Amino acid sequence: MNLCFDVGGMSTKVAFIKNDAFIKKDIIKYDSLITAKNLFEKIVNYIKTSVEINNINNICLSFPGLINNETGEMSGLSAIQRNHEINFKKKLFELFHKNVYIENDAKCAAIAEMRKGNAIDVDNGLVLVIGTGIGSTVIINKKIHKGNHLMAGEIGCFLEKIENEKYLNFSETSGMYSLEKRYKKISGNTKTGKEIYESYLKDENAKELVNAQIYSLSKSIINISFTIDTDLVLIGGAISSNELFLNLLNKKVKELYKLSNMKQNFTILKCKFLNDSNLIGANELSKNSSY
């Protein structure tokens, strides 16, 4: 049985997976952005208090940021603050003496979809995992393309704008955490991303912010499509199960594509495994490291 963690900016999902079946699911909540050190302490405490470690074969992690899956070293922009300070792969192995596998979260989603889901026959594709920020991966010639410095496909790092001499990236302007912060700023009320979408038709503030997010996502999808000539765009994360989101995104991409006078040659679908894609992909890491 594998113990799998899908690390996010506001919580970490946990799954016990045996023979590709979910035996148990759980969640570690922190409800605010967290440092790598604090997250490591929470994961270790969870394993010590909630896991019969002798029943575990492997520990598998899906993690935001630039990940060297062989060494476990992390760097780059991430929903987990100071992610470079803790090597989860090395330290979890030292503590529990189990094989530890780790990979970027969007790449885990892509692995799940390429092996078992909606990207099995895709030559060139884009996987967007929309959570606290924006995770992304590009598939080129049926392989995940990482680049020489692990930065290929990291569209969450795209420059959106400079504000007060600060570089604001795509994740900061278009992720769910940004949506929630902006809603609170203009309305004075606190709502989750899900609640903001649910109030789209009756709340003008929600409608304005959702439309802005959809435009930003559509713009980046179109730009990537002209870069890798993608066949398919897959959407992961909790928002992937929201039909309003998918309808708005498809509609806006088609609208903008018509203005380009170019033909749209790709479709936009939700990940087959929705919000479980990251966990399933993490579990797959222990089977085959070639992707």
Automatic annotation (TrEMBL):
* Pfam families linked: ROK
Q: Which domain of life is it from?
A: Bacteria
Keywords per UniProt: Kinase, Transferase
Single GO MF descriptor? kinase activity
State the CDD domains in the record.
ASKHA_NBD_ROK-like
For this protein, the record's Gene3D superfamilies field holds: 3.30.420.40
Q: Which PANTHER family does this UniProt record tie to the protein?
A: ROK (REPRESSOR, ORF, KINASE) FAMILY, SUGAR KINASE
Tell me its family. Belongs to the ROK (NagC/XylR) family.
- Protein name (record): Putative ROK family sugar kinase
